[in-house]
Amino acid sequence: MPEASVEIEAPPQPLAGVTYAGASFLIWGLSPIYWKALAAVPAFEILMHRMIWSFLFLTPLVLL
Question: Quick check: 38 and 46 in contact, CB under 8 A?
């Protein structure tokens, strides 16, 4: 009895790869500007914002 072999090949997505690479380089290149703009903000305030906003966004996710 002959066995049927099915080969599934993923289509190449070079545009997606180039887009992701470009976006990562853009984020990496702009991050020094972001941190320079935050130099005047106290570290405690940044930390509290991160904690509060994370709690507000993740609480509904955890409850689901």
Answer: yes
Q: What is the pLDDT of residues 21-48, one digit of tens each?
A: 999 999 999 999 988 998 999 999 999 9
Domain borders along the chain are: 15-63
Helix/strand/coil for 8: coil
Helix, strand, coil content of the chain in percent (nearest 5): 75, 0, 25
Instruction: Provide the whole-model pTM.
Output: 0.51
CA distance 49 to 24: 25
Quote the DSSP letter at residue 5: -
* Distance separating alpha carbons of residues 25 and 36, to the nearest angstrom: 18
